From TrEMBL:
Gene3D superfamilies: 3.40.50.2020. The lineage of its organism: Bacteria, Pseudomonadati, Bacteroidota, Cytophagia, Cytophagales. It holds the Pfam family Pribosyltran. This is Competence protein. Residues 124-213 form the Phosphoribosyltransferase domain.
């Protein structure tokens, strides 16, 4: 069955039917010069993000939203694996295999992980690692509760803090490395930015990001 439209698959089709695969809204940001990459612009003036990559453009009520829903809420981790593998192969063909040393998924909070049973970013990291023939490490980053005093922060800072507190669980693993941080979907970019910031602080040589899909703002 096709993961996007649920039609039966024909022989030789892999997880998605030929029609869906042809009609997915591919973002192709890796083919654009950096100054024309809309995703890169979101990080300008914030952090030096080397490569800003996304496989698909998020469209409400479309195939991409359906695929992400399958991945996140229906236990269909194959969605992440197969899209990651295809995208990794495409990036390899574009010569980007040599641009990274390690793939790291954005972690879920432990409580959420226990509820869902899996992190939807892990399967994408696993697929990408396969397609790019690079190592990935699920536990390099850790999402933590904010324990710092909130009293001196304004309301906006407090709100941001709750969502985006990460720490590097394995500094030895990322030190001196070119790390590709991956997540299922990018909306504001705040989560990926927070992950990149702690990786750079822990001595990562470069940080890049890749998501399955990006939502327009
Ligand atoms: Zn289909």
């Amino acid at each position: 069955m096709c993961l996007a439209c649920h039609d039966p698959l024909a022989r030789g089709e892999d997880h998605l039917c030929t029609g869906c695969r042809a009609q997915l809204p591919y973002a192709d940001y890796h083919r654009l010069p950096p100054d024309q990459n809309p995703l890169a612009r979101r990080f300008w003036g914030k952090l030096p993000v080397q490569h800003t990559l996304s496989y698909l453009r998020f469209q409400k009520h479309g195939r991409v939203q359906h695929l992400l829903h399958q991945l996140k809420y229906q236990g269909q981790q194959d969605v992440g694996r197969v899209l990651g593998r295809w995208y990794g192969q495409e990036l390899t063909e574009a010569g980007l295999q040599a641009a990274f040393d390690l793939i790291v998924p954005v972690p879920l909070h432990a409580r959420k992980l226990a509820q869902r049973g899996y992190n939807q970013a892990d399967s994408f990291a696993e697929g990408l690692a396969q397609g790019l023939q690079l190592p990935w490490h699920a536990a390099a980053l850790h999402r933590v509760m904010n324990t710092k005093s909130q009293t001196r922060k304004n309301r906006m800072e407090r709100w941001e803090n709750v969502e985006t507190v990460f720490e590097v669980a394995e500094p030895n693993l990322v030190h001196g490395q070119r790390v590709l941080v991956v997540d299922d979907v990018l909306t504001t970019g705040a989560t990926l930015e927070a992950c990149c910031a702690v990786l750079l602080a822990a001595g990562a040589r470069e940080v890049s990001i890749a998501t399955i899909a990006t939502a327009d703002r």
